[in-house]
Design goal:
- The complex is a heterodimer.
- By secondary structure, chain A is an all-alpha fold.
- In chain A, helix 1 crosses helix 3.
- The interface between A and B is large, with 79 and 72 residues.
C-alpha cells in the first residue's frame, strides 16, 4: 500500500521511518524494558532498534506484519543487550532483601519494588518463554499474534506460555514467603 | 472452543491469577518512554535516516572535488556518526555495508554522551505538521571542506529541548558506549536504599538529614530511574524545612526538566498548599 518510489523507506510496502517510529516506538520501548533493558538504557535501545531497522529495511518482504518485523529487531537488540550485560545484570535481589528498605514508604517506590521483582522473575526465563510471556501477559496480544511475533507454531506458543506461567507463579510465591514481596 | 478462548490474560478483570501475580505484572503498566523522550528520540532517529541518505549523496560530490575514497568514507562516517552520536553500541552484522561500518566508527568518535553530539535539525514527529514531509537536514553538506578536511556542521539540536538525562556521574566523556558506562555503574540497590533513608528522615522530621541524603543521591545517582521521586521528596523536604523560595525554584526546575511528569501534580499541590498555610501562619 505504501509501495511507492517517493522514499527509500517504502520498498516492500514498509511505511516511512517516521511513520514506523510514531506507531511503534512505545511498543519497542515496552518490549525492550520487559526483555531486560534497563530504564536508563531504554532510549539508546530504541534508537538502536530503529537505526538497525532502517539499515535493514530492504529485508522486509511484506509477508509478515510490520509489527512482527519491528519486533524482530527489538528482540534481537534486547538479546544482545542481555549478553553484553551479563556482568552487570539488573539484579534487585539485594534491594528487595535490604532491611533498610521499608515497604509502604511511598507508593512509587513500592511499585518500583514490584517492578524490580518482575524483572528478576523474567530474568529467570529463557528467551523463548520470556518472549511469549511478555507478549501475551504484558502486551496482552492475542495468542495467534504472539505466535507470529515469536516465530513459532501456535501450540508451541501455548506450551511456552504454560511453562512460563508456572515459573512466574512459583518465583513470586517464593518472594512472598521470604518476605521480599509485597 | 479454541485455545484462544480458553486462555485469559492474567491482567484481565476476569482472570483467576492470584493477586500477588497481578500486582507484580501490573507494575509494568508504566513501562515505556515519556512524551518528551519520544519527541527527543524522534529527532535523533530521523536525523540518522536523513544523514544516511545525505551521506550517499555526498559521495559523488566529494568525488568531483577530487577527494580520495578514504576521505569519502570519513565524510560518510562523520555525517552518520554525528547524527547518531548517542547511538548504542553498533555491532558487526553479516549484512553490514561500508557506510554501516563507518557509522560505527563515527558513533565511537563522537565526543561525549554527557554532552550529546549535535544532530542535524529534524522536526520531531510531535511537532511536524505534515507527517509525510521529509525531515529537514541542515548543513550535512557543510562537513566537507574544499581542502578535503572536516569540520563540525553548524546544527541545532532539537533533542536538547527534552528532559535532562544527567548521566555525568556514571559516564566517562571518553567512553561513550553503554558497555563502558556499565563498567562504572553503581548498584541500583544502593539507589533505592538511599532514597528510602531520605524519605525516612523526612518522615521523622529530620529535614536537614533528609536534604543531605537527597543531595548525596543527586550526586551518586544523577541518572536514577527514581530521579523524579527524589526531586519531589527534595521539594517536600525544603517546604517542611520552611525553605519555601528554594522549594519553588526546585519546583520550577522540575517542571522544566520533567515535563509531563506524574509527580508534577503532587509538587504543585505541595508548593501551593504550603504557601497558603505559610501565609496564614505569617498573618497569625
Amino acid at each position: 500500500m505504501h509501495a511507492t518510489t517517493q522514499s527509500p523507506m517504502t520498498a516492500h510496502s514498509l511505511p516511512e521511518l517516521r511513520m514506523l517510529y510514531a506507531e511503534h516506538v512505545q511498543f519497542v520501548a515496552r518490549v525492550l524494558r520487559r526483555m531486560g533493558v534497563r530504564d536508563a538504557d531504554l532510549e539508546d535501545g530504541c534508537q538502536e532498534v530503529f537505526s538497525s531497522l532502517y539499515r535493514r529495511r530492504d529485508s522486509y518482504d511484506g509477508r509478515g506484519t510490520v509489527r512482527s518485523f519491528v519486533f524482530s529487531f527489538a528482540r534481537r537488540v534486547a538479546a544482545d543487550y542481555r549478553k553484553r550485560a551479563h556482568v552487570r545484570r539488573e539484579s534487585f535481589s539485594s534491594e528487595l532483601a535490604d532491611p533498610a528498605v521499608e515497604p509502604g514508604v511511598d507508593a512509587a517506590i513500592d511499585n518500583r519494588r514490584a517492578r524490580a521483582l518482575l524483572n528478576e522473575v523474567l530474568d529467570g526465563l529463557d528467551d523463548d518463554r520470556r518472549t511469549v510471556f511478555v507478549l501475551f501477559e504484558l502486551e496482552q496480544l492475542p495468542m495467534t499474534e504472539v505466535a507470529e511475533l515469536a516465530a513459532c507454531p501456535l501450540q508451541t506458543a501455548y506450551s511456552r506460555l504454560h511453562s512460563a506461567r508456572k515459573h512466574v507463579e512459583a518465583a513470586i510465591e517464593r518472594a512472598r514467603k521470604t518476605g521480599r514481596f509485597p | 472452543m479454541s485455545d484462544e478462548q480458553r486462555v485469559t490474560h492474567w491482567l484481565e478483570a476476569d482472570s483467576d491469577a492470584n493477586p500477588d501475580v497481578r500486582a507484580v505484572l501490573g507494575s509494568a503498566k508504566a513501562d515505556g518512554l515519556s512524551a518528551a523522550q519520544v519527541e527527543a528520540l524522534s529527532a535523533k532517529v530521523l536525523a540518522l535516516a536523513a544523514a544516511t541518505s545525505t551521506a550517499a549523496s555526498i559521495a559523488p560530490a566529494a568525488s568531483s572535488a577530487g577527494l580520495s575514497v578514504a576521505s569519502k568514507a570519513t565524510i560518510a562516517a562523520l555525517v552518520i556518526g554525528l547524527a547518531g552520536g548517542g547511538l548504542w553500541t553498533l555491532r558487526a552484522t553479516p549484512d553490514r555495508t561500508t557506510s554501516d561500518v563507518g557509522a560505527s566508527r563515527g558513533a565511537r568518535a563522537a565526543p561525549s554522551r554527557v554532552d550529546p553530539a549535535p544532530s542535524p535539525t529534524v522536526v520531531p514527529i510531535a511537532a511536524q505538521p505534515d507527517a509525510s514531509a521529509a525531515p529537514t537536514v541542515v548543513a550535512a553538506r557543510t562537513i566537507a571542506t574544499s581542502q578535503g578536511g572536516t569540520r563540525q556542521p553548524r546544527v541545532s539540536d532539537s533533542s536538547r529541548q527534552g528532559p535532562i538525562v544527567a548521566r555525568a556521574n556514571t559516564e566517562s566523556p571518553s567512553s561513550p558506549t553503554v558497555a563502558a558506562i556499565a563498567a562504572v555503574a553503581v548498584d541500583p540497590a544502593d539507589d533505592v536504599a538511599l532514597l528510602h533513608r531520605a524519605a525516612g528522615a523526612l518522615r521523622s522530621g529530620a529535614h536537614r538529614d533528609a536534604l543531605a541524603l537527597l543531595s548525596r543521591h543527586r550526586e551518586q545517582f544523577a541518572s536514577s530511574a527514581l530521579s523524579e521521586e527524589r526531586e519531589r521528596i527534595m521539594i517536600e523536604a525544603l517546604v517542611r524545612a520552611d525553605r519555601r523560595a528554594e522549594a519553588e525554584r526546585e519546583a520550577e526546575r522540575f517542571r522544566a526538566r520533567f515535563p509531563g511528569s506524574a509527580q508534577q501534580r503532587r509538587i504543585d499541590a505541595l508548593v501551593t498548599q504550603d504557601a497558603s498555610v505559610g501565609r496564614l501562619l505569617h498573618k497569625g
